[in-house]
Amino acid sequence: MAAQEAEHRMRSKPDITTDAHEGVNPVQSGCAQGSTYTLSPLQAGPYCCIPEPVIQVKALSLFYGGKCALDTVTLDIYRGCITALIGPSGCGKTSFLSALNRLTDLIPACRIDGAVHIEGENIFEDTCNVQQLRKRIGMVFQKPTPFPLSIQRNIALPLREHGITRRTDVDVITEQVLRDVGLWDEVCDRLDTPALSLSGGQQQRLCIARALALDPQILLMDEPCSALDPIASGVVEDLINRLSGRYTIVIVTHNLAQARRIANYAAFFWVKERERTGHLVEFGHCQQIFETPAHPLTAAYVSGVKG
Amino acid sequence: MIWWKCSILFQSVSIDRWFNAGLRLGATVAALIMALILLFLLLESWPALQHIPLMRFVTDDAWHPLEDRYNLLPMVTGTLYASSGSLLLVIPLGIASALFMAFYASPRMSMLYRRLIELLAGIPSVVFGFWGLTTVVPLINQWQPPGASLLTAILILTLMILPTLVLTSYAALIAVPDEYLRSAAALGLSRWGMIYGVVLPAARQGIVAGILLAAGRAVGETMAVLMVAGNVVQHADSLFAPIRTLTANIALEMAYAMGDHRAVLFVSGLLLLLLVMILTTMAGWFGKEHHGE
């Protein structure tokens, strides 16, 4: 099983050079452009042109203790697309993101109402295998968090947990994901060195590689660029751009320009003044949200008047 | 980039200068006391070191100090057996307890357990010895006489050094940043996978420091061991044989030792210091971060 998986990865290895300039995509990623960077034509498919929901969020409410942090959010996230979650701090974007892979389970006194269907399966059902769910959904955090292990072990650890233990398989996957994030050439001669000795941008790319190693369908990214300098941030942004199509990406960002550059869809969250409760104001095509927003709050936020 | 804490430039405000002077004084006094103790030990053991060849401490046929026979080796092995035996028991026990407290027990249970362990840490060693003498020794005596033995010493020592290891390991475990735990959970790691793969490597240095502290206490513990170990000067051939440790030997004979005998007791003090130094060095070596293993 593990061997097959590794073999499959070998065959579908992308023949892209990891040239930063080539990856730069200043305009919003279109269908044709993005597919240059995907693994194989089969997997890429005509994404984002035919929206097919992969995550269906139905009336999701989230409470910390008795306090409602997120109020009845309903939205669909489409396969192969980048969906950006924008809005001011404290409006529940990160909570929303953590609910999608049930990371909210870790927070004591966090209660969730409503349903999230991923591929038709409600993840809040008791029958849902959380470990398998999190294997299918990779997550990247704001602060790069490589484990205090070697670069190699950082990637091997989750693989081992999910049953891929053969040294050769692990090596193949390690090389492939490191190539995918453009880190291979930088670290291939020092895979045994501590991951914490890498620079911030490299650490973040390693974290992305670690998530990719499990071959997820969905990537959740919580402000992946905000702790990085502009150049490293640019590299990571290009990477996210390249990954779209292969993966369904949900990204929280405070950088509106970034959201505009990379996202296909955008969801605008706002926080009610009095109750401090977050809610979804508007969801739509990225272009529509930024250029012809339907809601006055959205218009004020994206034009910088408010927020 | 490496920051040297001492090279940060301070404005020379007077309070800073006073503070600086105070800290220097404190550091000097601490170092000086250590140096003086070492000097004192050397001075007191000098008569023996001067005219008893070092080899005689290991080649003499027995420990009969009144007849000029000074073999320290049985007591060195006694100390080593007792402390390494108790370490062997305490390392799995202590780390398991700390993991239980940090990751498995409910907050209330964890609190209760920690209070218990702290209580265990506060019990004076003579009470441990007393309890061992009246409870553990008779129990083992029923099974394998005479009861006062290496095994009893190991058991009592284990109880005594357990809190040290548990509390330091626990502190190291809960100091592991939440981000690691969150990332590990997001990768679909099970609780054990997270603990084994991420938490233990991250907390390694603190745990090793705890083991060192525990080992130091095991080597140095005198009273309790003296009360339960039987104090026969011999190489233990089984777990049930009575032994005498270096520390117990000093405590037992200090009162009446004279001349060379007294000096040789100080030599055994030096030997203890050496043992602890080796332990410290080893801990430093193991504690180094071996990321690439």
Strand arrangement in the largest pleated sheet of chain A? 5-4-1-2-10-9-3-8-7-6
How would you classify the helix and strand content of chain A by structural class? alpha/beta
CATH fold-level topology of the domain at 2-14 and 28-141 and 217-302 in chain A: Rossmann fold
Secondary-structure element string of chain A: HHHHEEEHEEHEHHHHEHEHEEHH
Please name the CATH topology of the largest domain in chain B. Answer: MetI-like fold
Show unreliable segments of chain B. none
Sheet having the most strands of chain A? 10 strands, mixed
How much is the radius of gyration of chain B in Å?
A: 23 Å
Number of helices of chain A: 14
Level-2 CATH architecture of the largest domain in chain B = Orthogonal Bundle
Q: Which two chains share the most extensive interface? A: A-B, 33 and 22 residues
In CATH, what is the homologous superfamily of the domain at 2-14 and 28-141 and 217-302 in chain A? P-loop containing nucleotide triphosphate hydrolases
Determine the structural class of chain B based on helices, strands and strand pairing: mainly alpha
The major pleated sheet of chain B works out as:
2 strands, antiparallel
Could you list the spans of chain A in which at least 5 consecutive residues all have pLDDT below 50? 9-47
Shape of chain B: globular
Mean pLDDT of chain A: 82
Strand order of the largest sheet of chain B: 1-2
CATH architecture of the domain at 2-14 and 28-141 and 217-302 in chain A: 3-Layer(aba) Sandwich
